[in-house]
Amino acid sequence: MGLTVGGPFAIEVTRLSKTYEGNVTASEDVSFQVSPGEVFGLLGPNGAGKTTTLRVLITVLRPSGGSARVLGMDVVKQATQVRQAIGYVPQERAIDRFLTGREHLQLLASLYHLPKDRAATRIEEVLKLVNLEHKADEVARNYSGGMKRKLDIACGLIPDPQVLFMDEPTLGLDVESRLKIWEHVRQLKARGITILLTSNYLDEADQLCDRIAIIDGGRVKAIGAPSELKSGLGGDVVTLTLAPTDLDKVEALAQALKAQTGIRAVSTKQNVLDIRVASPEQTLPAILTQVGAHRCRLEFVDYHRPRLDDVFLAHTGRKITED
Amino acid sequence: MQMYLQEVGALTMRWVRRLSRERFSMLFTLAQPMVFWLIFFGNLFQKTANTQVVQAPSYIAFLAAGVVVMTILNNGLAGGTDLLFDKENGFLERLMSTPISRTSVVISRFLFVMTITSGQVLVILGVAYLFGVHPVTGFGGVAVIILIGLLFGVGLIAISMALAFSVKSHGDFFSMLGFLSLPMIFLSTALVPLSAMPGWMAVLARLNPMTWAIDAVRPLILTGWAAAVKPLIIVVIVMVVFDAVCLWGAARAFRRTLG
Q: How far lies A188's CA from each of A39, A168, A193, in Å?
């Protein structure tokens, strides 16, 4: 295609904002960079601004402020060149139920101006890639949710894109189909395609993404590899639940625990203590000793590595599923 | 240019393929209602309608021109429907993320709807023929009728697509279509001539481009070329203005949706 990559990044978003008519602000100030070959996730609840950001990147929405580049090309000024180089997998249902799978791909191949013979081989390639060869000539209304999703991905792959955008790739799919879609995403990554996906599934982001940006209220709250973000929270979490009758002893216990070596932070909420520790194996005996010394009765002890849920909660002050 | 033809060809092919899989719905929603107007409404008012007033050998002969233009109106106003669904389910966004010219989706729709409409007009004229309505200007006249349909169609389809891109929900779209189409029909010369209308309705009917289309089609069916020349000149002028206004009005909605 003779593209010149103008920077080291596959995707570069700088202070992007989008205000819709009627002063509805969908995204306020979004910046991030994606390196070539990365799988990058925009993670956030519905209405957080992730789909708006994605729509600017695929050139169907003009930003109100800031700029965005894909493969070094400006998504507004060089929209046609950007379109030529990217693939897009919209949310499910962007399927014409009256057309067969193959007819979808033929349409897309013509829209990317592939010559006839090149189109034919490319269509076979992508059908094979998503395992849809046996259903290619069936009308899409007979497809299952998972098959429609595969067809969506196949459509996005027709131009042999360097960058693929996926909007909520597994929204509404059953567990088995989700795992298959994840497998496809990993295959694509192995082929060196840069992938930007949006999701409001934390486990999906955790499983698939090299790095994620947590978006909430139109702003980026945190960026990093899932493992980095998790360890950034300051260690593993031990949660103590005391008997309700010991409510008056919670504060004293928290103070005593904070003084212990190996304990980084203690937060309390009624009769529950969240204790961040560097190494639970070493600190757990000390914690239990303190509980005994304060004559507190334990109802429940829980220990876990920080999950992406904790990261999300820590950066946005709420759970991803809350509205 | 070759790229543009490839895009428009593929997009038009999509509409054709859809239609070929919805043969029954095509038959029932497009051909039938208009044929019913001609057959039932035409025969129903055969005795009531005064041939002196309608200036035609029979009411069906008078009505034929009206039903032809009603077909053009209905098909044109419904022309944006498929794009409405494309917009709602994200298909349009998929198309817009590809490196196609921003106009090719709209052009494919014009081509498809106008071709279908021309076919429908032929069906109507064929049914009218069976009821003894033989266009006096022959095949040449029929060709001119088709051309009038194409001219009127451009503006109508543009309105419909602009509406499809602008409405918040498809409920709004269909209620607005219903609101537009009936007054357009009643406030035109489709069912009665201007001379037989109450004064205020005749005034409104003169402002309706549909009236001018019907008044050009009717002499081609009933009286002959000599009587058709003047209304044909008028209809060309009216339609050029109508199309220009519609396209100009629709351009904003197109730009907003298609970029």
A: 10, 16, 6
Q: Across the strands, what pairs with B105?
A: none
pLDDT tens, position by position, A215-269: 988 899 999 999 888 888 777 888 889 988 888 888 899 999 888 888 888 888 8
For an interface test with A, the pick among B14, B97, B112 (most A C-beta atoms closer than 10 Å) comes out as B97
Whole-number pLDDT of residue A92: 65
Residue A289: CB atoms within 10 Å: 12
Radius of gyration from C-alpha coordinates of chain A: 24
Q: Which helix (H) or strand (E) holds B214?
A: helix B209-222
B18–A contact, CB cutoff 8 A: yes
Size of interface A-B (CB pairs under 8 A): 73
Q: How far apart are CA A140 and CA A111, in angstroms?
A: 20
Measured between beta carbons, the chain A residues lying within 8 angstroms of B21 are 98, 139
Q: Which residue has the tokens 């409104």?
A: B204
Cβ-based contacts of B90 with chain A (< 8 Å):
90-91, 93-94
Question: Which pLDDT score, from 0 to 100, does residue B32 have?
Answer: 63
Exposed e or buried b for every residue in A133-158, given b needs 16+ CB within 10 A? Answer: eebbeeebeebeebbbbbbbbbbbbb
Its pTM stands at 0.85
- Measured CA to CA, the distance from residue B151 to residue A194 in angstroms comes to 48
- The Cα–Cα gap between A133 and A110 comes to 20
ipTM of the complex model: 0.89
Domains of chain A with CATH codes: 11-225 (3.40.50.300), 234-305 (3.30.70.100)
| B129 CB-side CA count, 13 A | 11
Which chain A residues have a beta carbon less than 8 Å from that of B14?
96, 99, 103, 107
Alpha carbon distance B218, B190 (integer Å): 10
CB pair distance less than 8 Å for A107 and B96: no
What confidence tens digit (pLDDT) does each residue in A185-220 have? 999 999 999 999 999 888 899 999 999 999 988 899
Residue A200 tokens, joined:
């409001």
